[in-house]
Write a structure and sequence with these properties.
alpha/beta, Inosine-uridine Nucleoside N-ribohydrolase, Chain A, Immunoglobulin-like, eight-stranded mixed β-sheet, four-stranded mixed β-sheet, disordered N terminus, signal, Ig-like_fold
């Protein structure tokens, strides 16, 4: 009875899960297997369309679907436990379902795997998944992009130009840099594809956004900023590997922990992330559209992110590591779910309700004018376990609204918090005239997005302490 009552508190309004198709060069190094472990722990947040073993520059002529299957077999041992911790409408996929959606790409590097005679069950499954629904399909590329390129090529052979354009419009891609030549080929062929990518010389990953997930010990960026203690093998032993039988399969990292994970972190609808809005930032980093002539989203920077050493950091990597405390403890929290079917024996995220909006997966959208005052009321926020709230913070995510890479280029909201409520004051018209002038004149790639963002961030006192969010998007009418 206790579990039923507690689970009822999780039954809040849910958004539809994003359709996701994973391409992974698993077996190249341990980090793909690490990312797959986390992906499976969050698989109830997605409509999983496929998980496909691929090649890459690091694994040029072989694929290893057996490693995907092995991880799913381990997941099968704990999926019933996981389901005990989520609402009935948010259940995890069965291992059998995931195995039926496990595929393999053509075992050749890059464009050598694209064209006549290069079809694979992976490319066919991806093509069919995109064609089967009017909803977008997110293709998360952890290695090379040739399976996606082949899927598009195959579709082109039997469909009209209009049909191909419609197919392309349904693709949403987030790739961990370019790890073969197929991604560049495909973007050149179809520059309207929505594609999130750190653009740099081949293999020069130091400047990539995604290394912010854990990579400061291997790549030279933001020394003293990220909390490196949360991505050591020692922390992972205590909080992941030794927690459950599923956690015990999580390997040690060779270079960095989970370099591929940002591709799906941004798709977890946790109240902070907004699917399809890479410039708004979240656990998977922040990216900005490069121009109005294509749909390529590239590195953006967050400014003055306070690091562990008290210094301020401005970097692309900071758009991910600023959330590390949240995404690592959330990972640990879910691993604890996998250890027990007893709801009361594990912690669960607080549910943040603002102005009556209990749609955890959705932002709260309000329309304002310069000079307006808005009251945000989070008094209905609650914790499913009955834990006290450790902290409640209303703060403006300034970086989202920058025209230039500086805080002074953002209209600053007045935020006066009193416990679970806050009074938000929109600045005067003059503030927008000086900071958003080029946007309003139509000279920017993001001029259609005139919004200011408040994040309501709530931590509980459970073990481990977990976070809940509500993003409030203030659309400014000038």
């Amino acid at each position: 009875m206790l579990s039923l009552v507690l689970l009822a508190s999780l039954s809040v309004a849910l958004a539809s899960n994003p359709r996701v198709f994973v391409l992974t060069d698993i077996a190249n190094e341990p980090d793909d297997a690490m990312s797959l472990t986390r992906f499976l722990l969050y698989s109830n947040e997605f409509s999983v369309q496929g998980i496909c073993a691929t090649t890459s520059i690091w694994l040029p002529d072989s694929t290893h679907v057996e490693q995907i299957q092995s991880h799913i077999a381990s997941y099968a041992e704990v999926v019933d436990n996981l389901n005990a911790h989520v609402a009935r409408e948010a259940q995890y996929p069965s291992a059998a379902e995931l195995l039926s959606k496990t595929f393999v790409g053509y075992p050749a590097y890059g464009m050598d795997a694209v064209g006549e005679g290069k079809s694979s069950n992976g490319s066919r499954a991806l093509m069919q998944a995109v064609a089967a629904s009017d909803e977008p399909t997110w293709v998360t590329i952890w290695g090379g992009a040739n399976v996606l390129a082949q899927a598009v090529w195959e579709y082109e052979q039997k469909h009209s130009t209009e049909e191909v354009d419609n197919f392309i419009a349904k693709l949403k891609v987030y790739s961990i840099s370019d790890q073969d030549n197929a991604g560049a080929w495909l973007r050149h062929r179809h520059n309207s594809i929505f594609w999130i990518l750190s653009v740099h010389g081949m293999n020069l990953y130091t400047i990539a956004t995604w290394v912010g997930i854990s990579g400061e010990g291997f790549y030279p960026f933001d020394a003293g900023g990220p909390d490196s203690s949360l991505v050591t093998n020692e922390w992972l032993d205590t909080n992941i590997r030794n927690v459950s039988i599923f956690g015990s399969t999580y390997p040690d990292f060779e270079f960095i922990m989970e370099g591929d994970t940002p591709t799906f972190l941004s798709l977890i609808q946790n109240g902070l992330n907004v699917v399809g809005k890479p410039r708004w930032g979240g656990w998977g980093g922040r990216y900005s559209r490069i121009s109005t002539f294509d749909n390529l989203y590239v590195n953006a920077f967050d400014c003055n992110v306070v690091g562990q050493n008290g210094a301020n950091f401005t970097s692309a990597q900071a758009t991910i590591w600023r959330w590390r405390n949240a995404y690592q403890w959330d990972f640990s929290g879910r691993m604890h779910w996998s250890a027990t079917a007893d709801f009361s024996a594990a912690n669960h995220n607080p549910v943040v309700v603002v102005n009556g909006s209990n749609a955890v997966a959705e932002a709260l959208y309000l329309t304002v004018r310069p000079g307006d005052t808005v009251i945000l009321d989070a008094s209905e926020t609650h914790d499913p376990d009955g834990d006290a709230l450790a902290s409640v913070t209303f703060w403006q995510y300034l970086d989202v609204s920058q025209f230039q890479q500086a805080f002074q280029a953002t209209p600053a909201l007045g935020v006066v918090q009193n416990g679970l409520t806050a009074v938000i004051t929109v600045p005067s018209p003059d503030a927008f005239a000086t900071t958003w002038a080029d946007w309003t004149s139509g000279r920017g790639a993001n001029e259609d997005d005139m919004s200011l963002h408040v994040v309501v961030e709530v931590w509980d006192q459970g073990v481990p302490s977990l976070v809940g969010y509500k993003r409030v998007v203030l659309t400014v009418q000038l």
